Amino acid sequence: MLIGVVTIQGDFTEHMNMLQRLNVQTKGIRLPEDLEGVDGVIIPGGESTTLGIVGTRYGLFDALRERIEEGLPVFGTCAGAIVLAKTILESDQPRIGVLDIVVNRNAYGRQKDSFEADIYVPKLGELPVRGVFIRAPVIESVGEGVEVLAELDGKPVFVQQGNVIATTFHPELTDDSRIHRYFLQLCQG
After folding, report:
1. pTM of the entire predicted model
2. One digit per residue, pLDDT tens: the chain, 189 residues?
């Protein structure tokens, strides 16, 4: 299995390290042609505006949208969730727009307002996942085809729509690989 990780900007190294610990081959993705041969793609956290501008300028977002609509599994964390969203409140920034959610960028506050919390994900067992929220977006609402896999304070923090999953937190910043393994199962069909 080969998983592509978007390496335009953000914490892509942490995702690659997590995948390597799971004995999964990784490949950096910056250009449309980099998508060749990948079984899934991770869009990491970082700065969603920069990600959107650069991803659009190089044609990566159009190519990703097309591949996702054809069934390529994708996993977005934090900024990755923002650029996957169909609707970003008070923003016209470039996005892939394949996930039927409404997000509010940086809704938890500034960098100093970052926090960690236990997140219960029933599909992953009884033990909670540690959620690291850094300038995290809030998912304000989800469309009809979106399954909420976990919530925090009544707001979705982990969602899935078909072959697309997204978290508003950073599972790659912990030693818990369950969410990445869940994504890899999606990539295996």
Report:
1. 0.96
2. 999 999 998 899 999 999 999 999 999 999 999 999 999 999 999 889 899 999 999 999 999 999 999 999 999 999 999 999 999 999 999 999 999 999 998 776 666 668 899 999 999 999 999 999 988 899 999 999 999 999 999 999 999 999 999 999 999 999 999 999 999 999 998
Instruction: Please say if 170 is a catalytic residue.
Output: yes
Q: Which two tokens stand for residue 179?
A: 């969410």
Active-site entry in 14, 172, 180, 187: 172
Catalytic site residue 172? yes
Q: All domains of the chain, ordered by start, with CATH?
A: 2-188 (3.40.50.880)
SS3 (DSSP) at 181: helix
Q: What are the distances in angstroms from CA 35 to CA 11, 30, 64, 94, 99?
A: 19, 9, 8, 19, 19
List 15, 170, 180, 187, catalytic entry: 170
Candidates 15, 78, 180, 187; catalytic one: 78
Token pair in block for residue 88: 């970003």
Strand locations in the chain, DSSP E? 2-6, 25-29, 40-43, 74-77, 85-88, 99-104, 115-119, 129-133, 138-142, 147-152, 155-161, 164-167
| Strand pairing class (40-43; 2-6) | parallel
Q: Is residue 36 among the annotated active site residues?
A: no
